[in-house]
Amino acid sequence: MADGTEITDDGDVTAPEVEREPDPSDSLRTFGAVVQALREHAGYSRADFGGLVRFSRHTVESVELGRRMPDESFVELAEEVLGNTGALRKSAKFLTRGEAGLAAWFRRWARLEKIAVGLCTYERRLVPGLLQSAGYARAVFEGTIPVVTDGQLETLLAVRLERQRMLYERPTVPFGFIVEEHVFRRRFGDTEQMRAMLDHVLEHSAPRNVTLQIVPLDGGLHACLDGPVRLLETGDGRRFAYSEGQQSGRLIADVKEAILLQQRYDTLRSQALNPQDSRGLLERLRGEL
Description:
Order of helices and strands: EEHHHHHHEHHHEHHEEEEHH
Radius of gyration: 23 Å
Shape: elongated
Largest sheet: 6 strands, mixed
Number of helices: 13
Helix content: 40-55%
Oligomer: single chain
Strand content: 15-25%
Distance between the termini: 47 Å
Strand order of the largest sheet: 5-4-3-6-7-8
């Protein structure tokens, strides 16, 4: 149980998987791999197989790579051509499209968030997604490379703002945030957008189940310098951690490693400003604009 561990919707942990691009979905990729393995075992090229199932070689390739949801007729004909084992018919029932607006490497963590009884976040790069204003989030997505389409940007923005609702919809779940001061000082947009961002953070960190602490610029070195981290605990006492980098994310299910990261977070919590002073700092930053 370590990197890439798959988490089902009910929190079950299964075998590790390779991280992949934001699309397609895991189920489409898996189904496609099974089709390819059966086709190759039967000795068919994609072109030959396409002729037998009455689809083009390009369509066969798209299904095998998980880029296309297979038609019902494709599943039925492929099943017949590849031995009638029942594997394709049964697995096709569980196919789902990619979760729009969420990178594949983050989806597993997002599922765990829904069943967590406590979540903690340390961030040093940008305002945590659960606290971002719409303007701030839009600026983040507009700066994404490769550039996304207007439609994709709106989807990303909608999903991010939707996730923020759990701060209010789950009032008995504690959410903890520790953020470096320079994150809130980094300018984006105009003065009004900066004020709106700080107002949004102040508003979303106000509920009693949300705690925001800021690591001041003069706070010195600390235990979490290795990078941002997210931590959570499930109702049955399991602990998970998540770290993210360029085009990748790492879900940590190893108990010892998750506990170690929790210890680092707890140490940093004692070094950061308390929630009241952190709120005061944000209000001063807003007043300086």
